[in-house]
Write a structure and sequence with these properties.
Length: 811
């Protein structure tokens, strides 16, 4: 038998399958999706088996055998392997990069495999040659070690027993996260045998009490956590130890799965009655589920319209059919509230996958999915690869979010992967948002997606009133503060009424930059062409691109003046100013600096939800998903901070972010108010937020995109070239641009080469060129040729060329 293997060597020459002989012991168990160790040249590398065949196109005598199976059960399903082939071509990535991105990070570490009997009943079905290993219910702690001394026949028999599922394979992952273990107690005796033992314990009352508890509550060989047993039987550790010595009880340490929500009690909830618009949105989705028909739905529902309840009821219909569901949320900060909603509705059927979990926790959640212990996965971008085998629905909440696009190889967009998986399983995909991306809404208008609209909030709660505050007028009136007078008055009113306020500023740190007022010196990062940001908490200047940190100069390094001043405003400075104006106000700040520690998102949001804060101040992580009944005021401090970036999507992102943050106010019985401070109050993206008019914004922005030749009217490809040598970067980018102009059709537009918006990051110079096209049959072939041409130089010199076929970051 021949295994077709993709090896873990990410270069062009090896981006294909290699043939390896399958040793007889593995012929029973080797299947596509299993990882293997193979000899590749002079070294051993990992690889993925894509397929097995009986014959090879090469001389079988020259083929090397597989060294060993890393898995005994494939971590990748057949569908994920097929998906990887499509994704490899779609994103111009190495096949191995795609395959590895589908697995949790912990699986890239070394781990051993433990083999044990599923139940005692399987013992008699084992071949005689293996029964000696498992007599007395023993297990093989390390399969790889056992193989070294086993005979060929024993290895074959073992593989057959694994294939026939007589044995349970438990991977013991060796990551930096120490294995979570637990001390458990069991008894090797039946209830009748334990009753007889009571006579021997006539004078030991506590031991007798424990044995009575075991008789009533614990079966033979059933394992119960030691701490739990001590609490429930009301006995001490010494009592337990005595019975272990007498061999009435056995004590052992076992590896247990990590549950990030262990100890959390989720109150069960029932489906809520739907409003008419919600029901109209749900009906076509349910119809698609019932008929096993793939359809992509774009659900545009205003903030607070009850999109989550539609998701929950649609998932319930899929689960009733025995199918599975994936739900993507854009950020960790959204996950706590979303997880709570799903856990309350579906209980232990939900697995959670996001970056705030440790490697071990994420691996254990992933394993629950692979072992079919759960049928709903909630998580961020990478959860789209959850290894379900019978998907019935895929949901992407806040589908417009840029965090669904991966910026490293493979540069996939979760939306496209979801649609592809929906086609594979013939099931619906729901893209939900109050402010859909222009590309998605344009597709819905064309009929490519099925458009569903919910214009009213649940229980017909009014949308909050939005007022625009012209900060130019405030300056003319002598107010140089970051707060307008109207906003300060509104905050005071909310404080007096014991209502809550959300303040939004999309910039962390204390000041944007420091500058000398005498000579104009601005503190710059020595490794990047960007100014350093002042952070007050640790009195430092930090680069948000490479992490460089400096102490603050007391005098100007260039002219020795002491006129160093801070300019711009960050969340730290806003917090300080608020406390000066309102000394007794309680501010909860949420940004990257305050949420570094695990669980801090949830902790801060819970504090705010419990009324322990008057103001929630934060960056864009507070703009979406929050649903607290006592928030009646939202203040946006610098609405135009994103509006003037050199990116054609800047107006769209401004409108989306302001609409999302505005939607946090007045979601329940109390009416809400939104105050937007801006220096450009006449810009259409800000005016349309005031009127809650997505359609008006869509029409204006589409006209500008059409005139400028941007998506959705054109497709874009962005080619970035970076290197430590400026001359090499310029030369290579010029050659690439000339090659594109020669190879591609005249209708396709090539722009560049130009320096990137930030010309240097981490001591590497950056240049770029852009391709705009509507139809270009030679594009993929031409881009692959560029990668092949410069592959050798990239390996030798450190030159980096990145090609993004669907760019979301233009900087």
């Amino acid at each position: 038998m021949i295994a077709k293997v993709i090896v873990d060597v990410a270069v062009n020459q090896t981006d294909r399958v290699f043939d390896y002989l399958v040793p007889p012991e593995y012929e029973e168990t080797i299947v596509p999706g299993i990882r293997v160790n193979v000899s590749f040249g002079p070294r051993k590398v990992q690889g993925f088996v894509l397929n097995t065949e009986e014959k090879s196109d090469y001389d079988v005598k020259k083929l090397k055998p597989l060294d060993e199976l890393i898995d005994l059960y494939p971590p990748l399903t057949k569908e994920l392997i097929d998906l990887s082939k499509w994704l490899k071509d779609d994103t111009l990535s190495f096949h191995i990069s795609v395959l590895k991105s589908m697995l949790p990070a912990a699986m890239r570490a070394k781990y051993q495999k433990k083999l044990s009997l599923k139940t005692v009943d399987e013992f008699d079905q084992l071949p005689i040659t293996l029964q000696y290993l498992f007599k007395d219910k023993k297990e093989i702690e390390n399969w790889d070690e056992w193989r070294k001394t086993a005979s060929e026949e024993e290895k074959k028999q073992m593989m057959r027993a694994v294939k026939d599922k007589l044995l349970l394979v438990t991977p013991i992952v060796k990551t930096n996260d120490k294995q979570k273990t637990q001390m458990v107690i069991s008894t090797p005796f039946t209830k009748e045998e334990l009753k007889k033992s009571l006579e021997q314990l006539a004078r030991a009352d506590k031991q007798k009490q424990l044995i009575l508890y075991m008789i009533e509550n614990v079966k033979k060989d059933e394992k119960i956590p030691l701490i739990q047993l001590m609490e429930q039987a009301n006995v001490s550790r010494a009592t337990l130890q005595e019975l272990v010595k007498k061999k009435w009880l056995t004590k052992e340490e076992v590896v247990v799965g990590r549950d990030p929500y262990e100890g959390r009690k989720f109150q069960s909830t029932e489906p809520l009655p739907l409003m008419e618009e919600q029901q109209q949105a749900l009906d076509p989705i349910v119809s698609s589920i019932q008929e096993d028909r793939h359809e992509t739905f774009l659900l545009r529902g205003v903030t607070g319209s009850g999109k989550t309840e539609v998701y929950l009821q649609a998932i319930d219909k899929a689960l009733q059919k025995g199918r599975e569901a994936i739900v993507l949320v854009p950020e960790i900060s959204l996950t706590p509230q979303m997880v709570t909603r799903f856990k309350e509705r579906f209980g232990s059927r939900v697995a959670v996958l996001h970056s705030a979990l440790s490697k071990g926790e994420k691996y254990d959640e992933w394993l629950k999915i692979r072992e079919r212990k759960v049928d709903v996965a909630v998580g961020a971008r990478s959860a789209i690869f959850a290894p379900f085998e019978n998907l019935g629905i895929l949901i992407i909440d806040e589908e417009h979010e840029t965090s669904y696009k991966q910026e490293e190889l493979p540069r996939y967009h979760a939306r496209q992967v979801a649609i592809k998986r929906g086609q594979n399983y013939q099931c619906p995909v729901i893209l939900g948002s109050a402010t859909p991306s222009l590309e998605s809404y344009a597709r819905a208008k064309k009929g490519v997606y099925h458009l569903l609209t919910m214009q009213s909030r649940v229980n017909h709660v009014q949308m909050p009133e939005v007022s625009l505050i012209d900060m130019r007028e405030e300056l003319r009136n002598g107010n140089r503060s970051m707060f307008s007078n109207a906003l300060l008055e509104a905050i005071q009113v909310r404080k007096d009424k014991q209502e809550q306020t959300v303040l939004f500023l999309n910039r962390r740190g204390y000041s944007t930059f420091i500058m000398c007022r005498d000579c104009g010196y601005v503190a710059q990062c020595p490794h990047c062409d960007i100014s350093l940001t002042y952070h007050r908490s640790n009195q430092s200047l930090q680069c948000h691109y490479c992490g460089h940190i400096e102490t603050i100069p007391s005098i100007c390094p260039e002219c020795s003046s002491d006129s160093i001043r801070f300019f711009g405003t960050g969340t730290q400075k806003v917090e300080e100013e608020l406390l000066k104006i309102f000394p007794d106000i309680r501010v909860i700040r949420m940004d990257v600096d305050t949420t570094r520690r695990k669980g801090s998102h949830e902790k801060l949001l819970n504090q705010f939800g419990e009324g322990k804060g008057d103001i929630l101040l934060g960056t864009q992580m507070i703009a979406k998903g929050l649903d607290f009944p006592n928030i009646t005021l939202v203040g946006v401090l610098a609405a135009d901070s994103m509006l003037h970036l050199p990116d054609f999507r800047s107006a769209e992102r401004t409108f989306q972010l302001l609409t999302q943050v505005s939607g946090r106010a007045g979601r329940h019985e109390k009416t809400g108010e939104v105050m937007v401070q801006t220096y450009t109050p006449d810009h259409y993206s800000i005016l349309d937020v005031k009127s809650h008019d997505f359609l008006s914004f869509f029409e204006k922005e589409m006209a500008i995109r059409k005139h400028g030749g941007y998506p959705p009217y054109y497709f874009l490809v962005l080619i970035h070239v970076s290197d430590e040598e400026l001359d090499r970067v310029v030369s290579v980018t010029e050659k690439i641009t000339s090659f594109l102009r020669r190879e591609l059709s005249e209708e396709t537009m090539i722009y560049g080469p130009v320096a990137s918006a930030i010309p240097r990051i981490k001591d590497r110079y950056r240049y770029q060129c852009m391709v705009k096209y509507k139809v270009e049959p030679k594009l993929t072939e031409t881009l692959q040729e560029i990668i092949k041409t410069y592959q050798g130089e990239m390996v030798r010199t450190g030159l980096a060329i990145t090609i993004d076929t669907n760019p979301y970051m233009m900087l």
